[in-house]
Each structure stands twice: as structure tokens, then as C-alpha cells.
Amino acid sequence: xxxxKHNSPQILSTSYCMSQRLYSPKCALGCTHVKSDVFIDSxxxxxxxxxxxxxxCLAIVFMSHGDELGLYATNxxxxxxxxxxxxxxxxCQFLIGKPKLFFIQADRGMKLDHGIVSRPTASRDxxxxxxxxxxxxxxxxxxxxxxxxxxxxxxPGYQSYDEQKRAWFIEDLVxxxxxxxxxxxxxxxxxxxxxxxxxxKCKSNNGSxxxxxxxYIVSTLTKTMYLRSNVDPGQVQSSYN
Length: 241
Fold this sequence. Notes:
This protein has a single domain (2-112, 144-240), classed as Rossmann fold (3-Layer(aba) Sandwich). 20% of the residues lie in helices and 25% in strands. It has helices at 14-20, 36-47, 80-85, 168-178, 187-199; strands at 2-5, 11-13, 55-63, 71-73, 76-78, 100-105, 148-152, 162-163, 166-167, 185-186, 203-205, 208-211, 216-219, 225-229, 235-240. Helix 1 runs antiparallel to helix 4 (168-178) and helix 4 crosses helix 5. By secondary structure, the chain is of the alpha+beta class.
């Protein structure tokens, strides 16, 4: 897990939080081989912590096995819904209006993606539309489900893959985060690049290298979250507006 502090500049050390710790996770919610009850207790304690008011973002990385029903801990399952529910606006007031990111590296079923043949298609112009009523008030209600992003390693029902015990999704996520250009990228651009890199890979199975994977993103973010390179090695700045 990693946070963004309100202090200026807002800094995330990718070398600490991502490239090193994702393959040997020892974080605020526990260590490797965590038990479900220990994880849940730590999750509830974190969600109730007033310290969260000092941070402008929350991100949790969960790496395990899983299936259609949830994620595996050493002594029982954990559902993604339970995890995200603890940080919704109506449960965790300290993170209201702040981005809450969840990166899930786990299988979501047993289906195999054999890939398809891609053929060029005619391009079309993208349109931008706006809707809703403008609210002129310093205080307004926002949806309890707002400002949450879920980045799964694979689509529902499918398996995720790794090479030499390095998961495709996490490997490419680390790579993109460590190579953010100085001008910055928003979180959706970052995850689009990750999806592209993952989609290029093939998994060998019984002599056939045709198994594919693509990350699956679900987002209710209401603002653009930018990550920008910092002058210090392995660090980036963030903003959400």
C-alpha cells in the first residue's frame, strides 16, 4: 500500500513502493502469506485511521491467487467488494473526494484467452459530450461510490499469467510507472500503456504460444489524476483535479 501526502510536492517513491515492494510485499496491511482475518482487521483499522486525512490518495496492491468469487488468503477468501467498501465515502470520511486505487493481481477464473486475429479498421472521430446540472455551492453531495479505481490483472473469468514468478500485469505496471515522462500521464493513460504491453505477451501451453491476457479497469474517478516525473530518481508527483 502507498499513499500520497498533502505536502508540496506530493511525492510517491516508485522505487520503494512499486519496483521493490511489489515482489516482496511488506506493507501497512501485513506481509506475505497473510491470513484473511488478519488482513481484514488491518483493513478496518486503516479505514478508521484519522491519519488518512493527511494524505491525498490511497492505493492498495493485492497479489495472490483468486477465482470468480474472490481473492485467496492463507485461511480463507477475501472479496474485492469488501475491500473497496471500507474506503467508500459513506464509510471512510477521511478519503472523501480523494482517489482510491486498487491494483489486483490474481486469477479471476479458469478461462483461457486464445487471442484473435486483428485486422485494420477505419478510424473515426471521437466526440466529447457533457451533461448534468452545474452546482454553484461550496458544499455538495457526491456519490459514495465515487473516486474509486480498480485495476485487475485480467478480465472476469480469466486466468492471469507470469514469467519466472513475475506477473505480467505487475511487471508492466512497474515499468510504466518508472518511465513516466516529465510532462506526466494521467492514471488512465498509464493503465492503457500497461494494457498494451500486457496484450503483446503470449503464454506457452503444451507447445502452443497462444494464451493472451489483458488487464481490466473499472473506474468511478471524477477528476483527472496525473502522475509526473520528479527530479529525484524513482519519484513522481501527483495531482487530482
